[in-house]
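Sequence in, structure out. Go.
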Amino acid sequence: MLEKKKTVNKPKTLIMLLFMTFCLLAPLYSYAEEAKWLVPPGFEGEELAKIREWEKTWVGKRVDRTNVDQVKEFLPAPVRDVMVEKDKWGDFDFWFEVVPYRTYQPTPGMIKATAKYSPGSRFENDKYNAILVNYKDIAGVPFPRPKTGQEVAWNFNSWSRGDTVYKKGGGFTVSAKSTMERYTGQFYWRTFYASRVDLPPLPRIPDKKNPRGIRRANVMKMTAPTSMTDFATFYVKYIDMNKEDDSWLYWPRFRKVIRLQSDQRDDTVDGTDLINDDETGYDGRVNKNKYKLLGRKKLLLCRHTDPAKFERHEGMVMMGGLQREMNNVYMVEVFTQPPKYVYSKQVWYIDPETWLINYKECYDQQGRLWKFYENYQNMIKSKATDKGEVPIQNGSTFVDIIRRHGTPGSETMFQVGLEIPLNKYSIRALERKAY
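Output:
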């Protein structure tokens, strides 16, 4: 008698396979959902309680030259000097309001990227020119609890700042001696090709679409003054940290595109107080500096600001109407290695949650304090996700203490996490303007 052939119950087998797949993937899904933000807040526990007690007296108060010395221990000294020294900086009201400390709520992508990549973060070496291992393929904050100035600097460098940026704004170049000034306006586009956390593809754009190994590309187009209308720049930072950044300019007057030399990075930008390396606090190659962590300091800095509340009159080198909140910043001393660099040293004051440079001081070759920079920071929503925030710079000021000169500015529109065509970032895109 022939044995009856067994039949397979296909629906039942399919259900079993799906169940087994779910069991295998569930831990990974659970890990992604339960990933915690590894960066501690600037204040917590007893420290936070002390700040809240101090805030009972000061939050909501208007601080100007008449009462600023009551909080001068929490204010950068050069900022206080601009507020009170009328003979030097003009009889202006550089007032600010104290607002309560608020922690930062990162996007899910930032949380997951930090949880995934930070445990393996390490340098190829611990000397000058150190670079993160697998720098090309990681994202998030590499060192959530940094122990050295180098780690703090790489936290600042490694963020994608919303993956893409489109903004519109402007600023003034001001002489405090004469109160003469000039306005410049611009549109600005920026895309990170690597270190992306919210806008796919993650964590970087594939090599096929990025054959030149670009890490970040910027395009800026000027709208004012009239003599500079349509002037544009194209700037590239590479994944290879030993490769110098590239910059091209389009001059509408000559209908010509020119390339900047790499040794022009410390030239001043269009008569302002900034050099090319000063954008967003520092825009040079982070691996060409030596860093020393000086510790932490509590300062009233511009962390959650509203440009609509900024006040400025002709001749002011710094904004009034700012919102300042207490922050427990990292202080990092920075020495740039190439000889004859324009600054003998810098001191960066870095937000311990967002890793933006809130404030910095620049020293000349004689060791004198030459300039100070303040970043007016805020947190906004990304178009790539409906959760969390992205820290952005919605304004800034650069003040040349020696020449009594200032470059204040703010953004009237700022968007992050939106799709920007990659063909915008090319020399060809600049050349098309010339024809």
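Check: The CA atoms of residues 85 and 91 lie 8 Å apart. Residues 53-434 form a domain with the outer membrane lipoprotein receptor (LolB), chain A fold (CATH 2.50.20.10).
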